[in-house]
Amino acid sequence: MHPSLLLYCRPGFEKECAQEITHHAAAADVPGYVKSKPDSGWLLYVPHEDTIARLQQQLHFADFVFPRQLVQRATLVENLPATNRAAPLADIAARFGLRFSCVWLETADTNEAKELSAFCRKFQPHMEKALRTRELLSDDPHAPRLHIFFIDSATAWVGITEPGNSAAWPMGIPRLKAVYGAPSRSAQKLAEALQVFLTPAEREERLHEGITGVDLGASPGGWTWVLVRHGLQVTAIDNGKLAPEVMASGQVEHLRAD
């Protein structure tokens, strides 16, 4: 099998993810086929020819909706020895001819795969040591990331992502700290959206003191609370009440209207 494109997705959305990558691959003139299983949380796009490099150049992660991550040049490693998994994985990593800013050990976002999470945490330092021994880790934060996606403890896909053309979180899932003190759980939704849909430069440009915002349908004030924490002056519009802790900031004008 040629090197493939490995895509992570939310379990149950494999079909939509497959349709999306098939469309983008056709636009890039890279014919191939999809391999997937329902509710697995991942799938492969396998080019008919060794054209994965062209696909890598043509795909832009920001253009996708359903894939959580696009791992390029994915290679399957099977029958990893229980006593020394790191060495063969590092050997595969060396074949890319690159140095990596980090290595992410990942699994599918399923209940079955969660059992591998503890294994990945324990295995992380051993994998990093093997990569350092081969001088494959770099201090350059802009260097590619190495991904090792475990199907089970003896089987993994090994591939890479470029920091500017991929999700910035392991498994493609933003892990946000609990928003303590927020008047509603919806605050977490906006906090995540700001991380996902705005680049770091856009967040720096738009979320600071001196900027104004409008929250339509604001009650009880969860989204307003998030904007206030970024320093914005907010006009909150809702017939309902806003939580006292939101109004206490002095940065909110509450308009009781539809």
Query: Order of helices and strands, N to C?
Result: EHEEHEHEHEEHHEHEHE
Query: How does the major sheet shape up?
Result: 7 strands, mixed
Computed CA radius of gyration, to the nearest angstrom: 22 Å
Unreliably modeled segments: none
Computed structural class: alpha/beta
Strand arrangement within the widest β-sheet reads 2-3-1-4-7-6-5
Mean pLDDT equals: 93
Portion of residues in beta strands equals 15-25%
Task: Give the overall shape.
Answer: elongated
Specify the helix fraction band: 25-40%
Compute the number of helices. 8
Cα separation of the termini: 59 Å
Strand tally: 10
Word description of this protein:
Helix 8 (244-247) links the parallel strand 9 and strand 10. By secondary structure, the chain is α/β, with parallel strands linked by helices. The protein contains eight helices and ten strands.
